[in-house]
Records
---
Amino acid sequence: MKQGILIIHDNSCNTNVLIEKIQSNEFPQLSLDTSQQIRIFSPKVLEAFIQEEEIHERNVFGTSNQPIKTLSGGEQKKALLNYLIAAQPAVLILDNPFDHLDIQAQKELSNRLETIATTIQLILILSRTTDIPKFIKQKYSATNNTLVAYTNNNTANTIVKDIAIPTPIEPQEYGYNYLIQCKNINVTYQDKPILNNITWNIKPGEFWQLTGPNGSGKTTLLSMITGDNVKGYGQELYIFGKRKGTGESVWDVKKSIGYFTTNLTQQFKGRYTAEQMIIGGFFDAIGLYNKPTDVQKQKAAQWLNVLGMENQKNTLFRNLPLGAQRMIMIARAMVKHPLLLILDEPTTGLDDHNANLLVTFINKIAAESNTTILYVSHRAEKGLTPDHTFTLTKTSEGSIGNIINSI
Ligand SMILES: Nc1ncnc2c1ncn2[C@@H]1O[C@H](COP(=O)(O)OP(=O)(O)OP(=O)(O)O)[C@@H](O)[C@H]1O
């Protein structure tokens, strides 16, 4: 009988590097026979399949006619796992498979992995101790891309100081009661109902969490608000006091929104320092095309100070550990104190300690700014203190929305 192996990693590790080392047998303690067929479940592999499908215009997973790219995050993971297991590999390495999965799907996956572990050698690489399935007995920790004895003490490279966040250079002005108003919004894709009569009003300065299981339409709803989805037009959807499709440009809307999604971090591969990354938030561009003003530099320095990173202002962003990169990206999105800050699953891939810090940082931003915050997640993040939660619940006629007020 085979058994699963757990590797719990901190954010000093790069999971792709860990996987390469496992494949080339650099960890003899795993007693792995690398001559056997090894399959890998990871964001990198998923991305490669998406690209393959686009280039060759063929359905890679062969299960449905829907392109992988248009599947929801959770649906993509389920499809990839089914595809890999069908090949019956001797070894299956899984890089954080529970990320992006809702609670029900996490339970199902854990049970499924327990069954699979009797026939396939599983190596489970995780960043969150809360995700560890009970059936796994052989455990290691990974730090700086090496295996060490199991411990769940992970460390963070940033802190959140008890000093006020920097104030905006220009204060926000609101001439409306609601920042966002959705009135009876409906969405279907190829006759499949996704959103059913969604009514949701968000006032300026509120802190909202948007939750719902995989495929319930969270991303669809967000993309309508940001203007990335044409399905918002012609509906009763108001943003910053204007009805969608009544002359405002997508650019007008976007420049008042700070956006963080984990995919965004991967776009910054150039030689930008931590300071430049924060200042870049004033210019809505990836590179720094304008010379920053003294006030902008001062604000960036203050944000770095809040994060205890004042001595790392000249460190290249791409060389910073993942937790520090996330904090910088959030400071960048906040530097202008946008009307709306959207955080799409910002703790994905973070270890427990860095996830806690990020949550502390977001609570602080919510308490000390007038920016409206929309925190999107399929799981309630421990310690997060939103004013309200908007929950999508799937039905056969599309998802319906419910509001849960805190306290
Ligand atoms: N362009 C598209 N064509 C067809 N179906 C789509 C398209 N975009 C999204 N969908 C479907 O709409 C549903 C909602 O997807 P959406 O990405 O909004 O869900 P989600 O709540 O963000 O899910 P997750 O938590 O898994 O990320 C899914 O079933 C998805 O497959």
Note: The chain has a mean pLDDT of 89.
---
Amino acid sequence: MKQTNVVALKLPARNSGEGDVPHLYETIANDLLTKGYSVNIGGLPPDLTHALWTQVQQLSRREFAPAGIGREQDHMVNNFVRSDEICWITGESETGASWLEWATQLQAYLNRRLLLGLFSFESHYAHYAQGDFYKKHLDAFKGEANRTLSLVAYLNPGWQPDDGGELVLYTGEDDQTLRVTPGFGTVVAFLSEEFPHEVLPAQRDRYSIAGWFRVNQSSSARVDPPA
Ligand SMILES: O=C(O)CCC(=O)C(=O)O
Ligand SMILES: [Fe+2]
């Protein structure tokens, strides 16, 4: 008897309250492929957004430290470049662990779909008080196999147009820009070496998470493949 070749396709689960996670991952993958950046208004799963927002409200001022620029030994605080405060996210709390799990799943998805070879992820909460900003910068420098993909998520319910604090992404030649309102649950991803960006001065407290996926430095820093 001829065997029918029917494959049972497993559709992604669409649990209400958890958002459409696989769909968002796929949107990000497609956008990265076609444009190199992805903006998803209210894209983060609602439960996760609420948990992160609750956690960032509960962090005391003491847990935030002035943000620096540069890497490792070059790291220094420069209030002319950025004036926000940050708090690194660890997996110690349930909420921090859920966020890292969500990002790790995105990492696995992008590695499967785009073969990006993303290897690790680090992220911090950021608090921009009224007047705080982050001047135009790149998150990574070409040729230094460091940060590959930047990920930003916003935790600001009811953000109004005149609250400022937009992310400005320089998306093309001629200083073409895209302005992103830091609204509740909006998720942005972009290739770290490709897109300069800045944060315009916020007119009220602005909360976000900024994170970076890295490739494995030890292997990608090797210029010549072994003979
Ligand atoms: O919060 C944002 O919109 C972007 C922050 C940023 O560019 C950074 O932390 O490197
Ligand atoms: Fe940045």
Note: The pocket of 2-oxoglutaric acid (ligand 1) is lined by residues 126, 134, 139, 152, 167, 197, 199, 208, 210 (CB under 6 Å).
